[in-house]
Amino acid sequence: MSSKTPQTTRRVFLGGTAGAAALAGFSSLAQSPDTRPDAQAVPLDDYSPEFLSAAEWTFLLAATARIIPSEGDGPGALETGVPIFIDRQLAGEFGTAADLYMEGPFVPDATPQLGIQSPLTPAEIYRQGIPAFDDWCQRNAGAAFHDLDTDAQDSALQALADGDTDLAPELREFWSLLLQNTREGYFADPMYGGNAGMQSWIYIGYPGARANYLEWIGRDEPYPLGPVNIAGERA
Amino acid sequence: MARTDPKKEVVIVGLGWTGSILGIELAKEGLDILALERGPDRSTVPDFQYPNVIDELKYGIRYGFMQKPRNSTITVRRTLDETALPMRKLGSFLPGDGVGGAGIHWNGQTWRPMAEEFRLRSYVEENFGADLIDEEMTIQDWGVSYEELEPYFDRFEYMAGIAGQAGNINGEIQPGGNPFEAPRSRGYPMPPMPEQTDMRLFREAASAMGYHPFPRPAANATQAYTNEYGMQLGPCNYCGFCERYGCINYSKSSPQTCILDALKRYENFSYRVNSEVLRVNLAADGQTATGVTYWDEEAQEEVTQPADMVILAAYQLHNVHLMLLSGIGEPYNPQTGEGVTGKNYSYQMNGGTTLFFRDHNFNPFAAAGSSGVSIDDFAINQIDFATEGFIGGSYITAGLSNGQPIRGISLPEGTPGWGAEWKQAIGEWYGHSMSIGSHGSNMAYRDCYLDLDPTYTDRHGRPLMRMTFDWKANDIRMTQFMRRQIEPIAQSMNPDSWRSSYKSEGARYDIRPYQTTHNVGGAIMGTDPNTSAVNRYLQAWGQHNVFVLGAGAFPQNIQYNPTGAVGALAYWAADAIVNDYLPDPRPLV
């Protein structure tokens, strides 16, 4: 098994003598991920959502924390700022369906294989989907989603994923949007508000925007350098 | 508001690969040319420059270089009695817009179809009997042979600077190349791309089983190169951002890197961007085009642009849409089988097996779009259709084109899609999987076609084009056959685990997941005006001053990526226009 955790990535890098010497200028790589200021947990409490209401924000914190939990190896959605990413996306062109064909007639209950057919924008699907799903949680599990224990939250999300939460057809994409946007916020360049400290890239061993690997072709060994982002920062 | 501009000798609709090729070949003749591009202008700098374009969210996920469905989309149904609904969001395929078209955001796999594919119906009838062709299957010969097109394949490959290893030069089989390919007149202009770990593992396994692996032909430069127009390519640095991105490095062949800067130096050539052609205008007798009408986005007005000749060089779907809107060719009727425009829309039947290896580091981020190894041992000219019970074939291939994490991390069978186990799995398996894919043909059928939608309209009030398409049993048998060839190769490689994804009986077309942008047909070429929309020179049968370029000409889909054939046909048509049509404008057939 190759190195994948931040700790072993760092160990591999420091252990590679010639490579380390040649790249001594990358001093930040030698720091522990835990001590780098940009790898600290994002202060979600200090963030003022642009699009989401307080209740929606509470839901999103709870839901993304189950989709990519903090437990185990690697950062979770909360450590990487995924809710901030999603809020910003919903406030922008993604949320308003700026690129999508939004002319009627709409047939939201058509076969899913013909793609999204909801008259609602992604932002509207979150806005209507969160209370609808919370209402289902209340009726079926006895509390709103964020008040459930984590096992009950996981069960509720699985029901949402399986289409078993009696959401209106117009809200059918709520789960796929939530899952996709969570993954996007986890892995997208940090300039979009998620992937804080490039922690998700460090975790899986993705070098980000380095974009120059000619010398690495055909080498069956772990890549030693940590990621860079589009702003040119190194992790 | 509306205006009429001064007449041009040539109007080209769309400035991607085929528009650029026709543009420069006709500009050299001194013609006064205007190209109209519906999307924005795009150049390597600033539009593809590092680091801005290394942005997976903006370009890979939000489709920054693709057409916006709000501006242009189609409706889709699977059967004649289903109600077609609009493709509101891109998914299954990703047409580009803007200067360079899909030529900026492809991976660059540049193949020649097999000689047999150009005369597929005849090949099947001669070798396996006409009874093998179901009457619902409407496959046809192209009306042009591989031998006729060979010089034009050569021209396109040397213009684009393709890296590869020839397998057959003038009938002599070349070691390390594809022994089943049709003869080529000389080798590729650049040496093949170097071998990566997944390529090595597949090559070794395929060789051990007696197959004939060869490097994939790639429009990703392996050395410095200058083409016939004086355009220069530099060697690829494996940035891992080919498909869906413009090239940062002047390495991926595209209209920008291979043609446009040379073309823009011709004073008799000009182009307008954000100018979407709404229709081709025909003379009162319908026998010729008088020009086009387009929407000038900046001026916010319709413009009538008179021209002596109209070259439709937009993406396949848009060319067919314009023909349907303009009355070029009789619309195809699936009930009667009569009519030609929109006929024989075909797609591509792909499948694959993913292999997981704990002990190999594939470093998928260190990638070029086209590097890979293939075998053609199960290609169209290697299969006994009568024995196997299908018509078609596939190349089988391994090669990692990127390691971008949002677009997906392959995980072993049974891994959940979210939660703690998913997070654990992405840490364990990122960079530890490779795939062996089947890239297969797709036959044409009576009820797979393109026409105008009765309900939905675009922002200009024009009917959207309606696609009727579904998977058919013949092609599913083909992909299942490929599965039976690929899985033993995968097993012989001793992965920790593997998983397969091939269409199986009853599979329906699903527009959501990305599959391929190899949409073909609808403006098919041929020798009979009753069964084809354009003649063998891509000239409209009914309007001799209209030529229709691109993959719309394919009467059914080949087993390869289409751009090689699209490029060769463009040079073939350009040659016919320059040497035969311009001296005496008339129907060439």
TrEMBL record, chain A:
Pfam families: Gluconate_2-dh3
Superkingdom assignment: Bacteria
InterPro entries for this protein: Gluconate_2DH_su3 (IPR027056), TAT_signal (IPR006311)
Name of the molecule in the record: Gluconate 2-dehydrogenase
Automatic annotation (TrEMBL), chain B:
Domain spans labelled Glucose-methanol-choline oxidoreductase N-terminal: 230-338
Coiled-coil residue spans: none
InterPro entries found in the cross-reference section: FAD/NAD-bd_sf, GMC_OxRdtase_N, GMC_OxRtase_C
Similarity comment: Belongs to the GMC oxidoreductase family.
Statement: the UniProt record of this protein carries the keyword Protease: no
Keyword Oxidoreductase (UniProt): yes
Keywords: FAD, Flavoprotein, Oxidoreductase
GO molecular function annotations of the record: flavin adenine dinucleotide binding; oxidoreductase activity, acting on CH-OH group of donors
Protein name in the entry: GMC family oxidoreductase
Biological source species: Pararhodobacter marinus
Domain Glucose-methanol-choline oxidoreductase C-terminal stretches: 446-570
